[in-house]
Amino acid sequence: MRRAILLILALTAGTSLATSFSQKDTPINTRYRETPEEAAAREFKEHTAELPPLPDTHSDGWFDIYVDENYGKQPKILLDSLQIMPAPDGSIRYILNIRSDKGYDNLTAEGIFCARSSIRFGNDKLSSYKVFGYGDTVNRRWIQPRNTEWKPIGGALSRNDALRAVLYAAFCEDGIPTDTRGLIQRLKERAGHYAPSMKRHSK
User: Fold this and answer.
1) Bridge-partner residues for 151, per DSSP?
2) Helix (H) or strand (E) holding 78
3) What was the pLDDT predicted at 87?
4) Of 58, 88, 136, 164, which residue is least crowded by CB atoms under 10 Å?
5) Residue 196 vs residues 159, 175, 200: alpha-carbon distances, Å
């Protein structure tokens, strides 16, 4: 009799746990099927926006980005240019000035897209960046690049493009901030020469 009671209690507990468990939360999903609405909410659609006027490279508001002691250029980001695009885009836009070791300004208007997860589901967009315009400081205008594609951010970027790897670590790791104030705080914490923590954060 006692065994029968224990068996019934065990079965009841198992049923209760099964009810609260969702296949949606498992890495390998065998039963949950995403609805069309959920898939549409995750789909990336680039927001079309005009580029801002070409900024003054000697004005206030530029923040010095520290890459490493061997990086020969002087990269700066215009804090006032930071913005988070509305959904279903969600990328971060900004203006960079990658000043050469001889003092020549190289302006770019760019965007970084932070993927929601390092694991790709279906047609989810990977973390990537894109150049929207190159600054012509002589004629005071933006020049559209020939390659208008988003470039995936991965191991190759970290090896070949240390600057944007720093920006990715600042903006994307641990999830993107909810507003531009948060973006600026992240830059100061993770991308400045005298930042409180020079440790690279990761999920």
Assistant:
1) 129
2) strand 74-78
3) 86
4) 58
5) 25, 19, 12
Strands 83-84 and 74-78: unpaired
Measured from the Cβ of residue 91, the count of other Cβ atoms closer than 10 Å reads: 22
Handedness of CA 21, 22, 25, 29 (dihedral sign): positive
Both tokens of 61, joined, read 């508001």
Contact present, 113 and 94 (Cβ < 8 Å):
no
Residues 6 or more apart in contact with residue 137 via CB below 8 angstroms? 54, 57, 105, 107
Query: What DSSP character marks residue 142?
Result: E
Both tokens of 130, joined, read 């894109």
Alpha-carbon span 187 to 23, nearest angstrom: 38
Residue ranges in the chain whose pLDDT is less than 50: 6-11, 13-23, 25, 197-203
List C-alpha distances in Å: 118 to 65, 67, 162. Answer: 25, 23, 19
Measured distance CA(194)–CA(118) in Å, rounded: 29
Direct distance between the N- and C-terminal alpha carbons of the chain, in angstroms, rounded to an integer:
51
Structure confidence by residue, pLDDT tens digits, 145-177: 998 999 988 655 556 788 998 999 999 999 999
Strands 128-136 and 141-143, how do they pair? antiparallel
Round the CA-based radius of gyration of the chain to a whole number and report it.
23
